[in-house]
Design a protein that fits this description.
This protein is of the alpha+beta class. Helices cover about 20% and strands about 30% of the residues. It is built from seven helices and 16 strands. The protein has helices at about 20-30, 35-40, 115-125, 155-170, 245-250, 275-280, 310-320, and strands at about 5-10, 45-50, 50, 65-70, 85-90, 95-100, 140, 150-155, 175-180, 190, 195-200, 200-205, 215-225, 230-235, 290-295, 305. Strands 5, 6, 7, 8, 9, 10, 13, 14, 15 and 16 form a ten-stranded mixed sheet that branches. The protein has a four-stranded antiparallel sheet with strand order 1-4-2-3. A hairpin with a 2-residue loop joins strand 11 and strand 12. Helix 6 (about 275-280) packs antiparallel against helix 7. The relative contact order is 0.13. The model has no long low-confidence stretch (mean pLDDT about 90).
């Protein structure tokens, strides 16, 4: 985007008679999100046959000429910071990052900088064409600070909108690997239970009382057991709630190893070898890794699937449990 206003011109087809202004513009300008287009209309940056309009719902008659003035992108509030990134895939629309444990995704209270967004602003630079009029990466899903693994990020409105639809429709293929205390039974199962804020601690999530919270479904299968001490499992998400895997596994009595929030009181599993205790202490977060993500590319429609290598400390934990 240049430093001056960009001009977009659209001619309304006869068969589009009766269509809303915002919908006609969205169809003609797919690189701009509907939110951005509505903002342009509200600000008087869209003209119909030379007359400024501020009604997104205006019904068109067909044959009109639309002119949209797109101001330069606002610079992001977060600072661009040169933070190393493990990039699994990148093109003009999106990136897939293998996020390390300990890295916060988005600036927030207590984490004003040093986040994935700060790193992406530095890495992407002018290749970001903006999300909602601001030059920033589009975060369509998040991974907890202390969880490692794959996260997909949009560079522009088209990618952001296309990915968001897939996450909302639960069509994104996501698989996690985890190490939990004990041996879940059955070895393959589904945990269903609504999740909401813990009323006793707003920093935690908890299983909600009937009729409350948001629906959450987690499918799991045991990959390997280590006597009765722990199990290496795979989890697949049908929904994507905050702390979903951690809450669900804790609810069935098998919290994650190293989880400082939901695993403080692990079940009695017998004697734990010193090397296992050391490996848990060496974890940079809970033993949870977003290993796989698959989605349809929002521009090309091609199905993409990516696998993220387990962190070294996760591998060391598994090795210590095998002895």
């Amino acid at each position: 985007m240049s430093e001056v206003d960009a001009k977009r011109h659209v001619e309304v087809a006869a068969e589009q008679a009766g269509e809303r202004l915002d919908r006609v513009l969205a169809a003609a300008l797919p690189d701009l999100s509907r939110t951005r287009l509505r903002g342009l209309i509200d600000a008087g940056h869209v003209r119909v046959d030379g007359k400024a309009v501020t009604q997104p719902s205006l019904r068109l008659k067909g044959g009109e000429k639309l002119d949209a003035t797109v101001p330069p992108l606002l610079e992001p509030v977060p600072e661009a910071q040169d933070i190393p990134l493990a990039i699994v895939y990148e093109d003009g629309d999106l990136l897939v990052i293998n996020k390390p444990a300990g890295l916060v995704v988005h600036p927030a209270v207590g984490s004003a900088d040093g986040t994935l967004v700060n790193a992406l602003l530095a890495h992407c630079g002018d290749s970001l064409s903006g999300i909602g009029g601001v030059r920033r990466p589009g975060i369509v899903h998040r991974i907890d600070k202390d969880t490692s693994g794959l996260i997909v990020v949009a560079k522009n409105d088209l990618a952001h909108a296309g990915l968001s639809v897939q996450f909302e429709a639960h069509t994104v293929d996501r698989a996690y690997e985890a190490v939990v205390w004990g041996a879940p039974y059955p070895r393959t199962g589904t945990i269903t239970g609504n999740i909401s804020r813990d009323p006793a601690n707003r920093l935690r999530m908890a299983m909600a009382r009937p009729g409350r919270g948001k629906t959450a479904v987690t499918h799991y299968r045991v990959l390997q057991t280590f006597d009765t001490i722990a199990s290496h499992i795979e989890c697949r998400l049908e929904t994507g709630r905050t702390h979903q895997i951690r809450v669900h596994l804790g609810s069935i009595g098998h919290p994650l190893l190293g989880d400082p929030v939901y695993g403080r009181n692990p079940p009695k599993v017998g004697d734990v070898a010193p090397e296992v205790t050391d490996a848990i202490a060496a974890l940079k977060g809970q033993a949870l890794h977003a290993r796989r993500i698959g989605f349809q590319h929002p521009r090309t429609g091609k199905n993409l699937v990516f696998e993220g290598e387990l962190p070294s400390e996760f591998k060391q934990l598994l090795k210590s449990l095998e002895h």
